[in-house]
Amino acid sequence: DTEVTQTPKHLVMGMTNKKSLKCEQHMGHRAMYWYKQKAKKPPELMFVYSYEKLSINESVPSRFSPECPNSSLLNLHLHALQPEDSALYLCASSQEGGAITGELFFGEGSRLTVL
Amino acid sequence: SQQGEEDPQALSIQEGENATMNCSYKTSINNLQWYRQNSGRGLVHLILIRSNEREKHSGRLRVTLDTSKKSSSLLITASRAADTASYFCAGLSGGYNKLIFGAGTRLAVHP
User: What DSSP line would sit under A29-74, residue for residue?
Assistant: First the structure.
């Protein structure tokens, strides 16, 4: 079982809705990540938080808004999404050294469908 | 952009056979990692090989790294039906925590 918990597992939303994806880890990791994955494609990096500060934004549209309220939680706020944003959204965390020294621990993902 | 390109894109074998997947990357790396993903699930870390290592083993997994050719391979020996999954290589690209994934190989192991 993964130690990174993502909720909800499935989300269906309209293009005018506002929703949030949540991610939680209790491993003491100080780096947290959001990836987006389309079917039969690799995960694409969206955001990285290091010590609760946004350190990487891969030019993600502003309709995706990340938030890291504390070292254990990571949110992804969604607003005015497009159908092409439908995908599996994966959260991950890693130790202080980040990906340079060790592995990323992934959650099971939130399957998002935008109608 | 992808850090690694995997070869083959899909691989179908019988139980007991070995499976070899290759990964080529474009930029210099500090380490290269391999992950496994069952259909529609999260990714699970398999093994990490550092740039100063040439080969690493973990159970039925063997990973090699050739930094001169910018390539890595993952060998799964004596495959099982439960090994059916997608396998991705991943490397750091231009940033401390910027882990970028290759296209992946979809492995199907038939009983």
Answer: --EEEEEEE-TTS--EEEEEEETTEEEEE-S--TTEEEEEEETTEE
**Mean pLDDT in consecutive groups of 10 residues from the start of chain A, 115 residues:** 88 94 95 95 94 92 96 96 97 77 89 96
Pick from B45, B90, B92: CB nearest A100:
B92
Distance CA A59, CA B23 (A): 26
**Interval B49-106: pLDDT, tens:** 988 899 999 999 999 999 899 899 999 999 999 999 999 999 876 666 788 899 999 9
> Between residues 57 and 86 of chain B, which touch chain A (CB distance below 8 Å)?
none
Cα(A9)–Cα(A16) distance, rounded to whole angstroms?
21
User: Which single residue is written with the structure tokens 């989300």?
Assistant: A11
B99, two tokens: 């882990």
